[in-house]
Every structure is written in C-alpha cells, then in structure tokens.
Design brief:
Strand content of chain C: under 5%
CATH topology of one domain in chain C: Helix Hairpins
Mean pLDDT of chain C: 75
Distance between the termini of chain A: 28 Å
Order of helices and strands of chain A: HHHHHHH
Helix content of chain C: 55-70%
Number of helices of chain C: 9
Low-confidence stretches of chain A: 1-8, 150-165
Number of domains of chain A: 1
Chains: A mainly alpha (165), B mainly alpha (526), C mainly alpha (212), D mainly alpha (113)
CATH architecture of one domain in chain C: Orthogonal Bundle
CATH class of one domain in chain C: Mainly Alpha
Order of helices and strands of chain C: HHHHHHHHH
Oligomer: heterotetramer
Radius of gyration of chain A: 19 Å
Largest interface: C-D, 91 and 77 residues
C-alpha cells in the first residue's frame, strides 16, 4: 500500500516499466479482440470493456496516476462514459427512425454469416458498451484509489474531486 | 410514433446527456430538465389516449402461436394510470428543484440520477417481462440509493447504506424468484408465465401438473420471495426498517419522489402486477394469499400511524405516515375485489399527490427556516401564506377530510371492506384515519398556526417556482376528487382495475401473433 | 460425473463463503471471496457458459482490486463479529424459514441436466437455439439474446452501471453543500468551491497513511 | 443437490448481511448472495452432454445439444448489476468511514445518537 500511495517514484523500476508496457499492449489488444469478435466467439462489450479498463488500471498501478491522467484525464473519462451510453441509446432508438418505427430493431443488414461485419447493429452495440464500461470502471477505480481519507475528517480532508472542477 | 418506448427512452437520454451539460450554465440545465419532464407529461397523455396494447421491443413478437421472443412492453389501464402519476409528480418536483437544489453542489449529476430514477420507474411500470422488471427495478433503486446519500452528511450516508443493503437483499430475492419461475416454466414473459401457471392450477394447485391437487411448493416459495422482495421495496411493516431513515435524509425533492412515487411504482405496483397478472391472485380462490396481503396492509397502516404520532421531525413524521398510507393501498388491493382494487389504486394516486406535496411543504419550511423540528416552528402561516395554505390542503387530504381526494379514496376502501364482509378491517381503517387526522392537526397547529415566533420574523415566502409547484399539487388534490364521479372513475380506475382482474385479456393481448414481420430472416441473408 | 465435480466445487464455494463472512481478518476474507469468485468461474466453464465465465473472471479481478485498494487499511485489519443476540435470532429464524421453504420447493425442480424441451417445449430459448443464427446473423447465441432479442435488458444493464458510476462519483465530491453566500448568488460562477485545475490532478493531494 | 447447495450459499449470504457488523463484511455477504443466485441461474440452463451456445457451424446437431442461452444472458446482466451495486456500496462505506472513523455499523449507530 505504501508503494501505491507514493506512486511515481517507487513503482518506476525499469523492469516493471518495460514489462507493463508490453503486457499492457497485449491486454488492450486482447480487449479489442474480445469486443470486435463478441458476436462470433465468447465475450462481448462488457467483458472487453472490463479488460480494456484493466489495461488502464495496470498503467496506473505501475506508473502512477499522473501517467494515467496524461492518457485519460478523469474529466475525459467521465465524458466518454456519457458518450458510450449515449451511443448505445442512439443505436437502440435508431430503430424507431430506420427500422420501421420499432424500438431496438436490428435495422442494419445482417450480412454474411460468421464474418466480422455481420449481425447488423450487434457489433456496434458491443463497441458502444465497451467504451462505456471501460470509461466508467476507470473512473470508479481511480476515484476510489486516490482516496486516502483520514478517519472522521472534515470535508477538507477529503481528497478526490472529479466532478467539480 | 408510439409513445411507449419513448416513455423510457426520453428520461434515459436526459440521464445520459445531463452530466455533459456545460458547467457554468446552470439555468440551461434547469431548463433542459423542465423541458424533459414536460415532454414526459405530454407522452403520458399521448399514452392515455392510446388503446391498450402490447409493444414488442425489437419486433420480436410471438411467431405462429409461440410466445414472444423478446421483451414486451404492455400498456393497459393500470400502467397508463401509473405513467400519468409519475409524469405529473415528476413535473411538479422538477419545477421545485432549481431553487431548492441551489444550495447543493453537483446539480447536473443530481438531475442525471433523477431522470435515471424516473426511467427506471417508467420501465418497471411498462414492462411485461419478469427479468426486465428486475433490471429496471435496479436502475430505479440504485439511483435512489445514490440520491438518498446526495448530501454526504453522516445521517444521510448511514440511511443510504442501510437502504442499499436491504434493497439489494430484496433485489436478489426477486431475482431468485424469477429464476425459480424460469426453472419451472422455461420463460420469463409475464403473459406466458401467467397462462402456464393458470394451466398448472395456480397457487391453489388444482391443475393436472401438480400431483393430487397439492399446491405447488415451488410456486409458493417464489410467491414468498416476491412478497418479501417487493414488500421490502414498498416498505410494508415487517420490512419497513429502512424507510424512516432513508426518506427524510434525502434532499427534499427526492424525498417527495421516493415517498410519492418510488415505493409505489417499484413496490406496490410491481407487487400487484406480479401477484395478479402472473400468480393469478384474482382468478384462483386463494384466501390465504389475500389474507396475508391484507394483514400486511393492516400492520403497515397501524404501525406507521402509531409511530408517526410521536415524531417531532416534520419529514420523519411524513415518512412514517407514508408507511401507514401505503397500508391502505395494500389493504384495498388485498381484498382482490374489483371495488377494492379500484379503491386501492385511487388511494395510491391520491397519496402520490398529497405526500409529495407535503414533503415539498416540509422542504419549503426548511428552505427558509433551516429547521425540520415542528416544535421550533410556529405561526408560519403569517410569513409563508402559500406554503401554509397548500400544506393545509395536503394535511386535510391525507387525513381524509371532505371535499379533498383522500376522503373519497379512504371511503371507497372502507366501503370495499364492508362489501367484502371484512368489518374488522374496515373499523381499523376508520380508527387509523382518525389517528392520521390527529397527527396532521398537530403538524398544522405547531408549524403553521399560532403565534409567530420572534426568530421567524424575517422569514419570507419561498421563490415563485417552488410555490407554483406546491400550488399545482394542491389543486390536483382537489381535482382528483372528481374521480369519485362515474365517468372519470370508469375511465381511470375501472379501466385500471380491469387490467389486474381480467388476466386472460392481458395474456391474449401479449400473445397475439404479430402480423407478417417485415424482417424475415431469409430475405436478409446472403 | 460432471455433476459430482460441480457438487464438489459448489461445496468449495460454500466453504469459501463461510470463511469470507466469519473470519476476523479482513484480508483473509477478501482472499476467500476471490476463491469463491474463481471457483464460480470454473463452474461456469464446466456448465458450457464461456461468455459468463469470461465476464465473471474479469469482473472478479476488478472487484478484488476495488476491494483491496479501498477497503484494507492499516487501522482496520480485524473486525469484531456478531451483533446483539435478538437481532441474530431474528435473522436466523428468517433464514431458516426461507431455507425450509426453499428445500421443499426445489424438490419440484426438474433433475439437473434435463434438456429444456422436455420441461418446456414452447420456451423462447428453443427458438433462440434453432433460429438464432438466421434471425440475427450472430453465431454466438448468448450475444444474440443479449443484444438483439433482449437488447432492451442490456440497455437497462448499461444504465445500471452508468447510474452506479454517476452515483459513486457524485458521492465522492469534495463539498456537498455550498456556503451561504455561494448559495445566495443567483448564478454562481462555479458550481463547487475552490477553483481547481481542469484535469483535477493538482487537487488529488496524496496524504501519507496514518502511522500506527 | 446442486440446487440445494446454491440455496445454502444464498442463505449464508443473507444471514451474513443481517448479522455482520463490519460494513465491508456486509458488502462481501451481499456479493456471496448474488453469486449464489447467478450460479443457480446458469445451472438451470445446463443439459447433460451439452455444448456451449455458440453456433460456428461445426457442431453436427447444434439445436439438439446446445445449453440454454437465456439464463446465461440473464446472468451476464446480473453480474454487471452486481458490480455496479458493489462499487456504489463501497463508495458509501468509504464515505461512512470518512465521517465516523469506523467500519463498525453498531458503533456508527451509537455515534449518530
């Protein structure tokens, strides 16, 4: 815990850094694969989104919050959270406009079976969900991990401030 | 365009967009929230004008005699009534919120959670699918857990945590119940379940499936789980422990929403829908179940009423009185007669209006004086005429004084009890009504009448918007008395009551095969 | 064979749950919860539910990170168990009644592993399996159910997560109420107190943990 | 037998929620109860010698062998809902700790006064 608290100096050994870079690349790649092939193989938007979030969390654990904030500032994570949810909402309601007035109609052509571009809106939904899940989990985890609260403290001892800036 | 999915989609959109609103344009956020809630009222009225129907999401309706493949939304008398109440009370509360919430930070997220809660309630009310019911119940519940703790003070956090723990137990019980029904019947669609349970003989176990006329233990267990789970959400008396802390702790607009709408939409309505439509409480002779529900109602009525008497905290008193009044609703519904259900729903509608009004009154007093203790107030009528007058209307309505709406609905409930031969229950209802009158007279006397205390000499009336929202609700208290007359009563209450008692029509509506589907699979495949 | 294996694993889950709830040491409890979670994943794999297993395992990892990073502090390592006796008795009575009703009820369930068409031939799931790939173009039937047949549920599920996250963030804000003069201003310049750097990073002061 | 074990784990979780004093322990008990329900749902969908409900065109008799996909879809939803509830309850617990300096719910009630 000590190491995590005073992050940027102690977590930064060369080995950890190098390994994290590689592992992180694989995690992100794996997450993207799980998302993109969610309609053909096991997995999907939620699992993929959580895996992508794990990639970011690994970055945070290894390099500290500053580094993560450089890649994905919390304000942007919060915005991406909303945008992911909105994208899913748009896909759902698009059926009313383009799918003969039916909510949640899969209005795109289904395409060839078992290809990447098939199954209509399902892959798009997966992408939207992944974006949403990834952003929201990073948000929650960072918010929780920056907490170092003094017991019984006042408001001023409370550290995080994501929302109001 | 069909208003059904929009009733859920519009508040969801507001919930997703509002956190993105520009930070420095608070007025814009307020305005957007107001427009959204006005749109909800318009949609609810549009839904009211529609004939009863089933809406198959994604076009996955029943094919050739089978069950619906996807999730079904059902619009019938009861859901129309609920959607209308939700929209109207939401509009009044949103009208009240901009001024009241100005003292809190995080207003955009407040509105976001608020509309997510409304979306959850609308989803619960409209759904025709048990698992979907669970999901939307969770949306509404989680938003309310967060909103109860919105102020982040000691008491609020503690109340919210207890609410969250008990609410989650309730949710998992409901989920387990859904799982058990699925295990037996292989479906989660309410209409499909309903027809299968009816074929199996229902709770009485008269059908061929259960052996030798014995009641199905599995169905009994599932029913118990639903009563416990949804009873917890509705805060019926053995399960009420969370409510007296949670409802007063929330910011006032949320207290009004929780007491006025949430416990009814995700508690009472969902319980009624499950018991009548799915389990078949009205069709099958199930005196035990009806008695159990009525006893729960009586316990809530008496328990909530007696606990309310001693309260000095205005909002806490209102919270206890909510338990008591929900008891009336449950009593009426537990009678399972057409008159009883109609009376219960009438009281539900009335309670939504006057309880949210009274909470808004309590908030208005707190807004200007900074206290919720009744013994510190006094003579506020002289300084806050609008608040005083509307709270008088609200108190008299809830106490059951004619010509306000509460009188008529309580009268109907008592009449229904008498008609069903339940004289003891009827007399208890009368006694509790007198108790209610007693503690609301106390509220009026201590807070609004009498001599104005010196420290309140400089108190002013609340801002116009807040006053307008209270006046709107007070007028509705008078207007809904009109439901006593035959025409409106048949249109609203009779229609709503029939949607619970006429189970077969519900099943037929949902299971009717959809006309030739535009998107037949073969056409679209290569 | 498979059933016996699952029974053993479920017993493992039950033991893990007992340890997690009744151990005095918080860290052991979290480890036990981790064991429960990963055993659960194995059960899902054995039950031919790869989608659920993948989601379960990643959620479990994340859940443990959340719990360990935020819950385990130096000053609270051990916990006192038990509430007052009457409360425990009521809880025990409630649970026992539930359990008895449940045990009677589950005797009516079909035996484990019975195919669906035997007990409910008209179940929607039969259509999903038979027609799912043609009707949705999606080979993974679970995804087809999740995002097409019952996409509305998934919208609800995404909303639940969104709600929880908005709720969590709003509860972690620094100041919840404004001071009197801020509230009096008709349109405050900033919604919350002090001016803060846009990325919020300057704000995240890191305090040393209290030394023991 | 398998169903019975699920029910027992569910009861353990509920009992833990009702009797534990520590906020973190209460949250863990909730997670236990939730996982019992999830396992129960997936167990319902299994069929003897079943295959995963993923139709990649290789299984000879897919329609006659695939396990029930609907409970799996429901469990996926339930898992994510459980995660959301857990995150929110953790946040409330941490704020409570911040306010009261303890995770013990009986002490919190006393402090509230």
């Amino acid at each position: 815990m000590k190491k995590l608290a005073t992050e940027e100096r102690e977590g930064m050994s060369l080995i950890v850094g190098t390994v994290t870079h590689w592992v992180c690349a694989f995690i992100v790649l794996f997450g993207l694969y799980i998302v993109a092939y969610g309609h053909l193989t096991p997995g999907g938007g939620f699992a993929g989104g959580v895996i992508l979030a794990c990639g970011f969390i690994l970055l945070m654990l290894a390099f500290g919050r500053k580094r993560l904030a450089a890649i994905l500032p919390l304000s942007r994570a919060s915005a991406l959270d909303c945008i992911g949810a909105l994208a899913f909402w748009v896909l759902a309601t698009a059926g009313i406009l383009f799918g003969g007035g039916v909510f949640f109609r899969n209005f795109l052509p289904l395409g060839k079976r078992l290809r990447l571009w098939s199954a209509g809106i399902i892959p798009l939904c997966n992408v939207a969900i992944a974006l949403k899940v990834c952003a929201s989990l990073v948000l929650v985890l960072v918010a929780l991990s920056v907490l170092r609260v003094k017991a019984g403290g006042t408001d001023e001892d409370f550290i995080t401030d994501i929302e109001e800036k | 365009m069909d208003p059904l999915p929009l009733l859920v989609a519009v508040p969801l959109l507001a919930g997703f967009v509002l956190p993105l609103a520009p930070k420095h344009r608070i007025r814009l956020t307020d305005f957007f929230a107001l427009v959204t809630s006005a749109a909800l009222v318009a949609l609810a009225i549009a839904a009211l004008r529609q004939p009863d129907c089933a809406y198959h999401v994604g076009g996955w309706g029943p094919r050739a005699g089978g069950p619906p493949l996807g999730i079904t939304l059902v619009l019938d008398g009861a859901s129309k009534l609920m959607v209308l109440i939700i929209a109207v009370v939401t509009f009044a509360v949103i009208l009240y919120s901009p001024s009241y919430m100005a003292r809190f930070t995080g207003k955009r997220k407040f509105y976001s959670l608020f509309f997510l809660m409304v979306a959850g309630m609308n989803g619960v009310v409209l759904t025709g699918d048990m698992f979907n019911l669970f999901v939307f119940l969770e949306i509404a519940s989680i938003a309310s857990y967060a909103l109860v703790a919105f102020g982040c003070e000691k008491q609020e956090l503690e109340a919210s945590f207890r609410y969250l723990v008990l609410g989650s137990i309730a949710s998992y019980m409901i989920l387990l119940g859904v799982g058990l029904l699925y295990a037996k019947m292989g479906t989660v669609n309410m209409a499909h379940l309903s027809s299968k349970i009816a074929a199996a003989g229902g709770l009485a176990g008269a059908g061929p499936v259960t052996e030798a006329g014995k009641a199905s233990a599995l169905l009994i267990f599932a029913t118990t789980l639903f009563i416990c789970g949804l009873g917890l959400k509705a805060a019926l008396v053995p399960f009420h422990a969370w409510l007296p802390d949670a409802h007063p702790s929330a910011p006032t607009p949320i207290s009004a929403m929780l007491s006025g709408l949430l416990i009814k939409a995700i508690g009472v309505y969902a319980l009624t829908r499950v018991l009548f439509t799915v389990i078949g409480m009205s069709d099958v002779g199930t005196p035990t179940l009806c008695n159990l529900i009525m006893v729960l109602g009586i316990l809530s009525m008496v328990g909530g009423g007696f606990l309310a008497i001693g309260q000095q905290d205005f909002k806490r008193l209102l919270a206890y009185s909510s338990i008591s009044q929900v008891g009336y609703v449950i009593l009426g519904i537990g009678l399972a007669t057409p008159l009883g259900i109609a009376a219960g729903l009438f009281h539900l509608l009335n309670h939504a209006i006057f309880k949210s009004l009274l909470f808004l009154n309590a908030g208005a007093v707190e807004y200007r004086t900074g206290t919720r203790r009744l013994d510190e107030m006094g003579g506020l009528n002289k300084r806050m005429p609008a608040t005083g007058a509307t709270s008088f209307v609200g108190s008299m309505s809830i106490a059951g004084v004619p010509p306000f709406n509460g009188f008529f609905s309580k009268l109907l409930i008592i009449l229904a009890c008498v008609a069903a031969g339940r004289y003891v229950f009827a007399s208890i209802a009368v006694v509790v009504s007198v108790i209610t009158l007693g503690y609301f007279l106390k509220v009026q006397k201590q807070a609004f009448f009498g001599a104005l205390k010196d420290k309140w000499q400089h108190v002013r009336e609340v801002p116009t918007m807040m006053a307008a929202s209270m006046i709107l609700l007070a007028l509705l208290c008078l207007a809904t008395s009109a439901l006593m007359f035959k025409g409106p009563r048949d249109f609203f209450l009779g229609h709503a009551q029939r949607s619970f008692t006429q189970r077969q029509r519900y099943v037929d509506r949902v299971m009717r095969p959809t006309t030739a589907d535009a998107r037949e699979s073969t056409e679209r495949m290569d | 064979m498979l059933m016996n294996l699952i029974v053993v694993l479920l017993m493992f889950v039950a033991i893990g749950a007992v340890i997690a709830i009744w151990t005095r040491d918080l860290l052991s409890a979290l480890i036990a919860i981790g064991v429960v979670g990963f055993t659960r994943t194995v059960v899902f794999v054995l039950l031919r539910a790869p989608d659920v297993a993948i989601t379960q395992v990643v959620v479990e990892v994340l859940l443990l990170i959340i719990l360990i990073r935020s819950a385990v502090r130096r000053e609270v390592h051990t916990v006192e168990a038990g509430r007052n006796a009457p409360g425990m008795a009521v809880a025990a009575a409630f649970v026992v009644v539930m359990l008895v009703l449940g045990v009677i009820a589950i005797r009516e369930l079909a035996p484990f592993g019975q195919p669906l068409e035997v007990r409910a031939g008209d179940a929607p799931s039969m259509t999903y399996i038979k027609e799912g790939k043609n009707q949705t173009g999606c080979g993974n039937i679970v995804t087809a159910v999740l995002l097409d047949y019952r996409g509305y549920d998934t919208l609800g599920e995404a909303t639940v997560l969104f709600t929880a996250v908005v709720g969590a963030v709003v509860l972690l804000r620094r100041k919840s109420r404004k001071s009197a003069d801020e509230a009096a201003a008709p349109e405050p310049a900033a919604e919350a107190g002090p001016a803060i750097d846009p990325d919020g990073d300057q704000n995240l002061r890191i305090e040393q943990e209290e030394t023991e | 037998m398998v169903y019975l074990l699920c029910l027992i784990v569910f009861s353990i979780g509920i009992y833990g929620v009702l009797t534990q004093r520590n906020l973190i322990k209460i949250i863990l008990s909730l997670a236990v109860a939730e996982s019992a329900v999830n396992i129960f749902l997936v167990l319902l969908g299994y069929r003897t010698k079943g295959i995963a409900p993923i139709d990649d065109g290789t299984a000879a008799n897919f329609a006659g062998a695939a396990v029930d996909p609907l409970p799996q879809a429901m469990v996926l939803t339930a898992i994510v809902i459980g995660l959301g509830v857990l995150a929110l309850s953790m946040v409330i617990a941490i704020r409570l700790y911040h306010r009261y300096g303890t995770y013990d719910i009986t002490k919190i009630r006393k402090l509230r006064g």
